[in-house]
Amino acid sequence: MNPVPELAPNLKQLRLSGILDSLEARNREAIASKLAYTEFLSLLIHDEVARREQKKFALRLRRAAFRSGKSLDGFDFSRLPNVNQALIHDLATGRYLGEKAPV
If we measure between CA atoms, which residue out of 29, 66, 20 comes closest to residue 47? Predict the structure, then answer.
């Protein structure tokens, strides 16, 4: 039994259409793992919340209108010969946060 055709209009009316994207996969997962209904529902709601957060982030990123994305991979370290490149890359990993080490 495929519940998607019956659920689709209701999910769209409730503005939960993002659940439609993960419903089939989560349904298969629930059957395979023998999840309780509440666990299945929790997964669907978590997917919807994550999708909305991602959508909000993408909107904020678009509104910020950054000129271009920057990363350390594209940084020209030759312009700053006195900078320790290995140290900068190590700091970028954030490892020092977990170790509670001073920078």
Answer: 20
Q: Buried (b) or exposed (e) across 62-86, using 16+ Cβ within 10 A?
A: eeeeeeeeeeeeeeeeeeeeeeeee
**Ramachandran region, residue 5 (left: φ > 0; alpha: ψ -120 to 50; beta: rest):** alpha
Are residues 23 and 4 in contact, defined by beta-carbon separation less than 8 angstroms? yes
Count of Cβ atoms closer than 10 Å to residue 88 Cβ: 13
Identify the pLDDT of residue 1. Answer: 60
Residues whose CB falls within 8 Å of the CB of residue 72, separated by 6 or more in sequence, listed in order: 88, 89, 92
- Token pair, residue 42, equals 């929790």
CA–CA gap between residue 32 and residue 97 (Å, rounded) = 39
CA 52 to CA 18: how far, in whole Å? Answer: 8
List of the chain residues with pLDDT < 70: 1, 3
